[in-house]
């Protein structure tokens, strides 16, 4: 019971408060408070009046604008990805080129230059985050997942967050830290979509009124979903994987119309990225060439596999699940220690921490290859494009680093003293059997795994896709070495096992299946490995689920984002809606309320929704709807609907020609909206009244008090609700709606339906006239029973 109440307390209901350490909403402080979003359509009088004024032409225009915004999101996200990749590749290219030129004379001087360049890049990143855009730290995927789950996390979609994410990612990834730019690209796409939806940034005077077409949280949610898919499509050049990632990982609500727009956005991103890469091939982008965008073509690798290889592949899945679950648990401990001790000391400590991690990473990546003995180059096959050796800083295999002979290479430098994209390409490469020794792979695995755990959670933009691929491909190739030595078959490629290892670690850490499988196929261009990728993903996810939750779910909990998971807790099956409410006192408003009372109520609590009560002619209370706090604040600020009389007014009457527009009730996404302390009212205003009937939600979702909490949970999450009324059992039923009542075809004869409804009304009228005749009651019961039988389907 206590566990179920703990979970229920994390639901985004009417209270607004700060989240404490265990993720429960607390009203002790208003600082950094987390609110829920209004995804439900408020069908009040103002909404219906606005809809009645719009014709079919407007709805066609609205659909066209949504597709146009999907086009803009795809173009914007694609250009942002191109800019980030070009910048990262050029910084890395200049860094390695300068370092290589210096180590020709002195390795010590080259090491110092390498450390200082990485330190400068990382310092620029952490300085931007700590002083300009704190919400841009981390990957951003847990925050976006919370937003699409119905949580309004402050600051995650601002213009400065977008700028901080782009430039911070360039500094952190270009600085050689053990992190990637794929998660930040998802956040970047979401920010671009949100800013386009609200018409830009008003704070920085970068707004346009003609772009301000979508002001509701519901429409913005669809745009942000398109942005998330565009980010994945731009990061991996995987448009289908981007659509599936948005569907599987980040969204809680989906529909077919949104699927088409998300797919269109991802396709636009793919076109933009392809065009940019074609333009860069002519040498217009500096060091950015064939690499940079993450695609590792292994179509020329292993073409077939035997039944005997399934055992080591299953072992790779088990290892991925164990290491992925361990990674999640270690990041929890490190992040919790940072939050409770380190980051409480201010921004300076965050900067010192990131710079210290940069120095350690640079020393390890430069120093460990110096301790490794070089290996003679293998005899190249005729027609082979693989060159041995290669100079440091050039993409390719067999890097000559600190070798005494010209025909030798350093296998540890091939993966350590390189960009992560090129290192993964080397690990995935085919026709390179015995390029890496087991000792070098094991050394790299331990060191990079430790660096990834320590780096993740620091005050820089950090993605976990590429580090996960690096870790998985390392132990996958290690298993491949033992498999080749054991079976001694010529058709076994170590690069194939590296790919499976990368998929297994991502599956064991992030717990994605379908989207990750498609992404891995798209970035490797090898459809023949699809069954094997599916196998290791299923095994690694099953093993990881036995220990903890996925990486994004754990990080969302650490960031105090109260996510509603896809499945309710087991304990909720034995609880009812009334038990979940506890002994809380319901604070309601009358239909016609005094302005002074409204101000007093809003100042005395932080509820975001209030039931509105009216009375029937017999004096019985009647719930007529739900009034949102934000709507009350708009009414208080506008003062248009203040009235002197405490009597209800007719909303359809012509006495009030001036009313707030329905769009005026929308909260800006870039701010926390109005506050009761921002509104100034005179003493005369406080003595006036407001009739809430035209502005409340007349049809909120209602559940009986004895409904199981599991059903309430599913209803709340799947519909994206913010409030649910818990009421006593209803005393009567006025009708039953079945499937056939919701299937209205355009070519159906409407006159027959009208005739049936008229006959029913006529029968009811005759029954009312036959009161007192006992025989006349019998057809009523039979008619209801027959009607119920007709509605059983």
UniProtKB/TrEMBL annotation:
GO terms for cellular component: chloride channel complex. The keyword Amino-acid biosynthesis does not apply. The keyword Cell wall biogenesis/degradation does not apply. Keywords: CBS domain, Chloride, Chloride channel, Ion channel, Ion transport, Membrane, Repeat, Transmembrane, Transmembrane helix, Transport, Voltage-gated channel. InterPro entries: CBS_dom, CBS_dom_sf, Cl-channel/antiporter, Cl-channel_core, Cl_channel_pln, ClC. It is found in: Membrane. Belongs to the chloride channel (TC 2.A.49) family. This is Chloride channel protein. It comes from Corchorus capsularis.
